[in-house]
Amino acid sequence: MARPRTSPQPEVPGLAARRIAADILDGVLRRRLALDEQLSGRSAHPGLPALADRDRALMRRLIATVLRRLGTLRHVLSGFLEKGFPADAPRTETVLLLGAAQILWLDVPDHAAVDLSVRLAQADRRAGRYAGLVNAVLRRVAQNRDSFALDDTVRDTPEWLLKRWSAHYGAEVAQAIALANGHEPALDLTVKGDAASWAERLRGRVLPTGTVRTIAHGAITLLPGYSEGAWWVQDAAAALPAHLFGDLRGKRVADLCAAPGGKTAQLAHAGAQVTAIDRSPARVARLRENLARLSLHAKTEALDVLEWQAEPFDAVLLDAPCSSTGTIRRHPDVPWLKGETEITVLTGLQQKLLDRAVALTKPGGTLVYCVCSLEPEEGEQQIEALLARNPNVARAPITAADVFGQGDFISAQGDLRTLPQMLPDADPRWGGLDGFFAARLVRAA
Ligand SMILES: C[S@@+](CC[C@H](N)C(=O)[O-])C[C@H]1O[C@@H](n2cnc3c(N)ncnc32)[C@H](O)[C@@H]1O
């Protein structure tokens, strides 16, 4: 006999977005998986394709809010948990973080935030028995919302990072970095043509460095100019290193560690003959797609720079893999994924890549080394060590004129050092830029 057909129960609206947000947060916080990898590419969460655009936007907002305000959320929730977060059901903490984030910062009615959180807990084998606790704690968060010090975002930076920044930059600057990291950054674009007219079309502004900044929301691919390849997404600070070479027309330039290609595009657009290398085939594929959209040309290879042999170049750009602690505004998972060990490992790799980059620079040629890190071991100290071990390399100090008159971006040694609180604006949505380090070096003729 044919079985009666039963259609699956329709899921409660909004639950899928929260469940996927919880899975991805568990990935970051408990398995140290990078957010980007869980949101796109081969390791992306399998539930993403079924999410409607609105739910996808909500999911992203939930994840970003929890990661940006993690210290504050844990502090608030701990006040209502006598025995701390249940150690035998880690999902309970994730559910509570998501629920409290909705109550405190998202435009979600309290009853919906509580109800959906309880359902999320119930759906988990181990957290299910804490559904009552989730209900009780989140209700108390809602009742007491006016008593929390939510403006104190310094708590949202892990102590190990705050300590590092205080040691290198001083306590006041470290706190300013932490505060700046709490703000959602604007969308920065490097434009091929007239920046002022693109700023007008995108309802943005032209920054002193030439970057067009907008606070437009929604899919980037739908913004004017995307499909015709008029611009590419690139933080204002990330756009500076490629400007440090001066006139590149007709020069042979190697872009080492090039993908996804923001700087390759700048170099090609400046008229250089670019060879772009990156060891990740998937990222090189993205670089090629990006260049094709922009109608820009570069020779591209998926290779390990450490094994690559080539005729030395007039100019070399090494945008080395790093801890990325300068990009926390855009990648709020970074502080929770990285630690001292990663910084030590990366420092060793950067040193090898730098030596290789010097060998790939012609005598008399220019090498620009950069990292999107705030850590001195990956920036300032890396260059001091190179200068000490290789007498054939000298620093060519960067001046304000090289960076559009922004003298405060230049360190006493003549390197580029941007911090997230620079380029401030009365409205924080328009201010800030990534923390970047860059040094310009010349190889002895
Ligand atoms: C900071 S990202 C580069 C960003 C890129 N320059 C841009 O502007 O879009 C660092 C890149 O280094 C690549 N990488 C890491 N180690 C490498 C190596 N040994 N050889 C080549 N590429 C490497 C990574 O795959 C990653 O794409």
Structure, briefly:
This protein is α/β, with parallel strands linked by helices and 445 residues long. It has 2 domains: 15-150, NusB-like (N-utilizing Substance Protein B Homolog, Chain A), CATH 1.10.940.10; 187-443, Rossmann fold (3-Layer(aba) Sandwich), CATH 3.40.50.
How do the helices and strands line up, and which of them pair or pack?
Elements lengths: L14 H17 L3 H5 L13 H16 L1 H9 L12 H15 L4 H13 L8 H13 L15 H11 L1 H11 L5 E5 L3 H7 L3 E2 L5 E3 L16 E3 L18 E5 L5 H8 L3 E6 L2 H14 L4 E4 L10 E7 L14 H4 L2 H20 L1 E11 L8 H10 L3 E3 L20 E2 L19 E7 L2
Parallel strand pairs: 5-6, 5-8, 6-7, 8-9
Antiparallel strand pairs: 1-3, 1-4, 2-3, 9-12, 10-12, 11-12
Helix pairs in contact: 1-3, 1-5, 3-5, 4-5, 5-6, 5-7, 6-7, 8-9
Bound molecules: S-adenosylmethionine (SAM).
Keywords: Methyltransferase, RNA-binding, S-adenosyl-L-methionine, Transferase
Pfam family, one: Methyltr_RsmB-F
Protein name: Methyltransferase domain-containing protein
Characteristic terms for this protein:
single chain, alpha/beta, N-utilizing Substance Protein B Homolog, Chain A, 2 domains, 8-stranded mixed sheet, 12 strands, binds S-adenosylmethionine
Protein model, in words:
- The protein has 445 residues and is of the alpha/beta class.
- It folds into 2 domains: 15-150, Orthogonal Bundle (N-utilizing Substance Protein B Homolog, Chain A), CATH 1.10.940; 187-443, Rossmann fold.
- The chain has 15 helices and 12 strands.
- Strands 5, 6, 7, 8, 9, 10, 11 and 12 form an 8-stranded mixed β-sheet that branches. A 4-stranded antiparallel β-sheet has the order 2-3-1-4, with helices on both faces.
- Helix 12 links the parallel strand 6 and strand 7 (299-302).
- Helix 3 packs across helix 5 and helix 6 packs antiparallel against helix 7 (131-143).
- The longest helix is centred in the last third of the chain and has 20 residues, at 340-359.
- The chain is globular, with a radius of gyration of 24 Å.
- The N and C termini lie far apart (88 Å).
- The model has no long low-confidence stretch (mean pLDDT 95).
- It binds S-adenosylmethionine.
- S-adenosylmethionine binds next to helix 11 and strand 6.
- Pfam families: Methyltr_RsmB-F (PF01189), NusB (PF01029).
- This is Methyltransferase domain-containing protein.
- GO terms for molecular function: RNA binding; RNA methyltransferase activity.
- InterPro entries: MeTrfase_RsmB-F_NOP2_cat (IPR049560), MeTrfase_RsmB-F_NOP2_dom (IPR001678), NusB-like_sf (IPR035926), NusB_RsmB_TIM44 (IPR006027), RCMT (IPR023267), SAM-dependent_MTases_sf (IPR029063).
- The active site is at residue 372.
